[in-house]
Amino acid sequence: MAKAIRFHETGGPEVLKWEAVEVGDPGPGEVRVRHEAVGLNFADTYFRSGLYPAELPAGMGVEAAGVVEAVGPGVVDFAEGDRVTYTGSPLGAYSTERVMPAEHLIALPDGIEFETAAAMTMRGLTASYLLRRIHPLKAGDTVLLHAAAGGVGLIFTQWAKLLGVNVIGTVSTDEKAAVAKAHGCEHVIVYRRENVAERVREITDGVGVPVVYDSIGATTFETSLDSLARRGLLVAFGTASGPTPPIHAMQLAVKGSLYVTRPALADYIADPAERAELSGELFGHVVAGRIKIEINQHYALEDAEQAHRDLEAGTSVGSSVFSF
Fold first, then answer.
1. In a 3-state reduction of DSSP, which class is residue 71?
2. How far is it between the farthest Cα atoms of the chain?
3. Structural domain span for residue 33
4. Enoyl reductase (ER) domain: from which residue to which, for each copy (predicted)?
5. Final residue of a structural domain among 237, 261, 285
6. What angle do CA 176, 226, 221 make, to 5 degrees?
């Protein structure tokens, strides 16, 4: 019988339960996927805690890679035996197998292993839309990226370097600084002992950066605004430290006629053609070795509670996966 992590109430990591589940056969437009690896993302904690809504009881997780075991009526793009990966709703990726809508699947190239796919699909597509859709970056631009040693950060910095974009990255420790530097950060700021906005101004000769990419939220919001150049853009794409504070229009004017956007990956991969374009470019870089995916934490799926504790403690570097 299939097994899955589920939660019947919102709360801390202790609400995650390892349960036997009935999977069944796929219906119209659905497939049954046997998972080979499952991604662990900070967004998973938002569903568990109740920050993001979920109808309870619910499965957990939105990213995995595996093999199609069966297809339902009307499915034409995938067949039994296909290698696939995915990210996005509905919840339920923390499982040994599942039935899900075929429309969410992405064909996985033979040159990418399942663990790599589970570690990079959400993070890589996030880096993809941040760099290729949000702002027209050009070679020579300098941007600020928070959490530069995280899963998204390490992909982002490598990709930015390929584009000729200079990255100033923030990290919490010297160890993480070394990792970020090794993956392409031109400058690394250890925020626990340095004033980030002041260092950004020093690095940019007082101008600031045209774009800040901020996945942290509450604790970095003011710093991000203060690091921007006149008419700069804050891309607030995550809330690891809590929701971004309310934004007052006059505050943006006083600080230099700034812009703020709060994008979500789902809106950049909803269109199949755009998803194919973004994933195709990502997969091409990975297969060619131009972008390397760092998997530094491996867990058994039944150890999801500990995995969430480690994730929220901020001790993770690079990507984390559940392996079978």
1. strand
2. 61
3. 2-122+269-323
4. 11-322
5. 261
6. 65
> What's the average model confidence in pLDDT over 246-251?
92
Structural domain contains residue 157:
yes
| CATH code for the domain of 163 | 3.40.50.720
* 61 torsion bin: left (phi>0), alpha (psi -120 to 50), beta (else): left
| Mutual angle of helices 114-132 and 272-288, in 10-degree steps | 120
- Amino acid 230 reads R
> Of 65, 36, 50, 213, whose CA–CA distance to 142 is shortest?
213
Of residues 275, 283, 323, 276, the one with CA closest to residue 109: 283
Which residue reads 């309870």 in tokens? 56
Helices and strands (H and E) in the chain: how many: 10, 16
pLDDT in tens, 31-77: 999 999 999 998 899 899 998 899 999 999 999 999 999 999 999 99
- Residue 260's H or E segment, with its range, is strand 259-261
Determine whether 74 is exposed, middle or buried from the number of CB atoms within 10 Å of its CB (0-12, 13-18, 19+): exposed
